[in-house]
Amino acid sequence: MCLAVPGLVTRVGDDALGVLMGTVSFGGIIKEVCLACVPEVKVGEYVIVHVGFAISTVSEAEAREVFKALEQMGELEELDTPEP
């Protein structure tokens, strides 16, 4: 199942090709994410991420609510897969 999951942006910057990328923490699981669809995002804000792309920003309260629901449903295991 593919899910869009909230995460905390901890770093923002361009990659070698000039694409806006960032480091995002999903409850302690850290992933590199493309931020090109949310160029206004800043460190400390939350984004909704789907297949490695941040697709929107979200409030901290909403992010925590969604994360808690996903945890209760047992849907967070997919986040713990190593990146290729």
Descriptors:
84 residues; alpha+beta; SH3 type barrels; 1 helix; globular
What is the average of the pLDDT values?
A: 87
Major sheet details: 5 strands, antiparallel
Structural classification:
alpha+beta
Rg from Cα:
12 Å
Number of domains: 1
Helix tally equals 1
CATH class: Mainly Beta
As a percent range, the share of strand residues is 35-45%
Helix proportion:
10-25%
CATH topology: the name is SH3 type barrels
Elements, N to C (H/E): EEEEEH
Unreliable stretches (pLDDT < 50, length at least 5) are none
- How far is it from the N-terminal to the C-terminal residue, by CA? 19 Å
What general form does the structure show?
Answer: globular
Q: Give the strand tally.
A: 5
CATH architecture: Roll
Query: Strands across the major sheet, in which order?
Result: 3-2-1-4-5
Structural summary, described in words:
The chain has 84 residues and is an alpha+beta fold. The chain has a single domain (4-78), classed as SH3 type barrels (Roll). It has one helix spanning 60-73; strands spanning 4-14, 20-26, 29-34, 46-50, 53-58. The protein has a five-stranded antiparallel sheet with strand order 3-2-1-4-5, with helices on one face. A hairpin with a 2-residue loop joins strand 2 (20-26) and strand 3 (29-34). The longest helix has 14 residues, at 60-73. The chain is globular, with a radius of gyration of 12 Å. It starts with a strand and ends in an 11-residue tail after the last helix. 20% of the residues are buried.
